[in-house]
Amino acid sequence: MKENNLIKSPVVFNEEQHTYTLGDKQLSGITSIIKKYLFPNMYAAVSQAVLNRAAERGTRIHNLIQLWTMGILTQEDIAELQPFLDAFHAAELDGWESEYLVSDNESVASSIDLVCLDKKGNIILCDIKTTAVLHIEYLQWQLSIYAYLFEHQNPELKVNNLKAIHIRDGKCNIVDITRLEDNQIEDLLAAYRNGAESFVNPLHQLPDGIDALLNEYAENESTMGFIKMVLDEYDKRKKELQAAIVDKLKSQKMSSIETPVAKVTIGKDSTTKKFDFKAFVESDLYKQSPAQYDAFVNESTTAGRVTITLR
């Protein structure tokens, strides 16, 4: 990590209660403002149990990265964090500060996961995510607010880039995030300070109704991702138990058993043959006499595929 010479905020963060205070005044975190004014229904369809499980996973990764910046990781922890370490070094980034608290010293405060430098010395703010998919627009607002507050707190410094560090399923991708204009951030913060009931998102200039549908689609995909995570864990355990049961039976040269709980049958190994149509039509056999085989080919029309890529 680079020697720290960033300006320290006078705001005090209580990690246990997750509160920010300046003297006797309590400030708001960025997350609550974004959720209230921009994404009020985010994860509304996800059960609290699943959210808690995901939060635990996210907290562990954040803690491991913070320990890494302090140079006190165990070998086991390093192995778990290896995808991040590989991606971080491949991007030629250098850590400067982790969990760096920024504030306007008036109404809002938050901690930036990682303040980094690239090989040219440019300042890059990074946020770590472990969600099933990245919510790019959410990250635009979050990291842009961080950049705005960072420069407010360090007026002689300029944030050059924003990045999301996405750690999921043993992989890590580092994604560039486009910064929003300062006036857009100021408008959102003004809405909060003035106690506004709502805020018109300036990024949304879409046909009526399409935005709500896409938001619901994204939330649905996120929910499916959380559910898949849980199902994958149970499926892995199911296969482990099944293998153990088979081993027990085979060790006694048994192929079936019946108990009050279940009936188990181990079938004989089988071989399946499939016709490789693609290889056939590319073969000399077909090319020499295609008409001979075309009578046995049925054609059907498939509707054009709809592709929705969440950003």
Describe the structure in your own words.
- With 311 residues, the protein is an alpha+beta fold.
- The protein has nine helices and ten strands.
- It has helices spanning 30-37, 48-70, 75-90, 136-153, 182-193, 210-251, 277-281, 284-288, 291-294, and strands at residues 12-14, 19-22, 25-29, 94-103, 108-117, 123-129, 159-168, 171-177, 256-258, 263-265.
- The strands form two sheets. Strands 1, 2, 3, 4, 5, 6, 7 and 8 form an eight-stranded mixed beta sheet that branches. The protein has a two-stranded antiparallel ribbon with strand order 9-10.
- A hairpin with a 2-residue loop joins strand 7 (159-168) and strand 8 (171-177).
- The longest helix has 42 residues, at 210-251.
- The chain is extended, with a radius of gyration of 27 Å.
What value does the Rg take, in angstroms?
27 Å
User: Quick one: how many beta strands?
Assistant: 10
Helix content: 40-55%
Helical/strand content category: alpha+beta
Structure annotation, total helices? 9
- Assembly type of the chains comes to single chain
Write the H/E string, N to C. EEEHHHEEEHEEHHEEHHH
Would you tell me the overall average pLDDT?
A: 86
In short:
The chain is of the alpha+beta class.
Question: Characteristics of this structure?
Answer:
single chain, 311 residues, two-stranded antiparallel ribbon, alpha+beta, extended, 43% helix, 20% strand
Task: Show the helix and strand layout.
Blueprint: E1 12-14, E2 19-22, E3 25-29, H1 30-37, H2 48-70, H3 75-90, E4 94-103, E5 108-117, E6 123-129, H4 136-153, E7 159-168, E8 171-177, H5 182-193, H6 210-251, E9 256-258, E10 263-265, H7 277-281, H8 284-288, H9 291-294
Parallel strand pairs: 3-5, 6-7
Antiparallel strand pairs: 1-2, 2-3, 4-5, 5-6, 7-8, 9-10
